[in-house]
Design brief:
The structure holds two protein chains of two kinds. By secondary structure, chain A is an all-alpha fold. Chain A is built from eight helices and no strands. Chain A is elongated. Classes of the chains: A mainly alpha, B alpha/beta. The complex binds flavin-adenine dinucleotide and iron/sulfur cluster. The site of flavin-adenine dinucleotide has 44 residues of chain B, from α1, β2, β6, α9 and α13.
Amino acid sequence: MTAAVSPAETSDIDIGRLTALADVMLPAAHGMPAVSDVEAVEAYLAQVLSWRDDLRQPLVRAVDALDPTSFTIDRLMALHEEDEDAYVALTSAVAACYYLSPVVRELIGYPGQVAKTYDPYAYTEWVAEGLLDPVVERGPIWREAPE
Amino acid sequence: MTYRADVLIIGAGASGGVAARHLAEHGFDVVCLEQGDWPDRSAFPGTRPDWELAIRKDWAMSPNVRNRPEDYPVVHDESDIEPLMYNAVGGSMIIYAGTWPRMLPSDFRVRTMDDVADDWPIAYRELVPYYDAIDQQIGVSGLAGDPAYPPHDDYPLPPLPLGAAGRRVAEGHNRLGWHWWPEPNAILSAPYDGRRPCVQRGVCTSGCAEGAKASTDLTHWPKAAAAGARLITGARVSRITLGPQGLATGAVWLDRSGVEHHQEADVVILAANAIGTARLLLLSADDRHCPDGLANSSGLVGRRLMMHPFSVVTGWWDDQVEGWQGHFGASITSYQYYESDPDRGFVRGAKWALSPVGGPLNHILPMRAGNEVWGPDHHVLMGRTFGRGASWAIFGEDLPEESNRVELDPERADTHGIPAPRVSYRISDHSRRLMAFQEDRATESLKASGCQETAVASMIPYSGWHLMGTARMGNDPATSVVNSRQQAHDVANLYVADASVFVTSSGVNPTCTITALALRTADLLVQHRSEQKVPA
Ligand SMILES: Cc1cc2nc3c(=O)[nH]c(=O)nc-3n(C[C@H](O)[C@H](O)[C@H](O)COP(=O)(O)OP(=O)(O)OC[C@H]3O[C@@H](n4cnc5c(N)ncnc54)[C@H](O)[C@@H]3O)c2cc1C
Ligand code: SF4
């Protein structure tokens, strides 16, 4: 994976604390790993903030405002009410780190947005197969309009 | 000596590009002023891992969120829909989805046929040759013979792939006995005019790095420049100037460092979109000739803004359809509920377009198909939905209302200190009834297509991509701003080439019609050049 820009500084963010919060938001469950299991925050936060420096300040606020020892999803929703920017920064940063992990992508079957090749004339097959026939057979559905 | 052009075009987007090319190729000396830059395709984020983060900030559809120097803020506190656009050579086509439907005959006659709004002063038939020509210029992929339309010329390229989801919904509609058809898209399915075909990456609304999706920076400006048109970028127009005879003499513009210039011209064409054009007409008010705004003796400049109420109905199957992949334009479309049926409790209708649903962040962060769930249930939701869905994008016909309008904001301004436009817009009760009906039918469609689960995002605010109506066309100068040639009633050498002139919105994506109208306006200017009044 190529980085668009060089990773940004993360010393203003308590990585351990953010990871603990992230593990409540995306815990190990239903066959999926927790954020800490794939070390997503350590591996990708600098990259995410290099792309979206505007998330930094509100993310710092979110990490400061939330106590990981008592953090719950209800508390996360309360943050949404109290400080929407902090909430958006936290959810965006955590989700972005998690879904950049190749392990997670593999598990959800997501290769990224990839280029595909296809035969542009393959449509003749489904036309020949009759897929459009019922539509054509019902006839025109547009209304004649006076000039 | 000041240089005076035959034609000055303001805005190098869809309509500006089409008009510039036609006029330059017919011998006019054309200058265009564009506040943005040439887009750099290598900077488009779609091939990068941060794509879904970028579309929420630097590549957002909203100029207010992007907040680049070339963007002007659009004040929308009093609007149910947020206006979206892109400011660059190519205009909003740089980030549009590329669906390319024509309007229908009834769309031009809603007063006569449905007793609402107003008829257009032109008919569908008059636009057909321009629709056909523009499809060739743009490189449209599609399939002729759609029974929702009068017969017309075939498209230059075969339709884009249906994809697994498109195929399933097509079969679902066959079971229901409902209309569907492969959507015509301004996206190449095969090489055309030196451009490469679509690779189905599904990132169209943050710029097509392949150049497969048509935008006038690719399809029109190189040809316009080859024919002699001059395009000045980083040039923000602040007002149109008037001469003593009440004719336009050109425009004042500011370069990136704020230095003021004046471009003189015989004819001025506004192509700044329905918000930018209304803003400029209002900014060009002059105490002597037009205290309420240029070309505004009808009082309608800025009024009748239409934006198409927009809902998304998403359905999920119980297996993979690679729902993140595929051109964003649309794989298939349905006009089953497009034409009026007054028994439904409303008139007019909506067009549906089936689109992919994006990558993981689009699934879980609120934007379009988003559903925010955290904790262990997050993984259940992703397991059930990711890659398994497709969305019906529903565009409802928006009937014009004078209270839906663009004005100048007394406080906010762009980076040059020019007042920002302020939009007041309310979705009407009629639109709400229309959309509720369409949402219910689209849910039935997806269920009949085998979806296990469906969800409706009703009339989402972040959807003002179709801007229309703020300088309407008409025969009567008391009730319209421009005539059927898109020439201002009040100023004989001022034309409006963009969707400001739309009388009604239809229920289809507008750019095919915008460009066909721009081509017609330019063509009529060529035909009537000897009669054109110009300043002394
Ligand atoms: C996200 C998105 C998706 C869309 N999808 C579709 C779709 O699938 N199908 C469809 O038909 N339409 C779609 N649209 C709409 C389509 O992009 C517009 O209808 C079309 O681009 C409008 O053309 P235009 O020429 O009126 O304006 P634009 O293309 O917006 O161009 C106007 C140009 O004028 C310039 N300008 C404005 N003011 C000034 C000034 N004061 N000085 C100098 N320059 C100025 C701007 O910088 C801009 O480049 C979409 C739009 C968006 C935002
Ligand atoms: S899906 Fe096709 S049109 Fe869209 S961005 Fe990719 S190549 Fe371009």
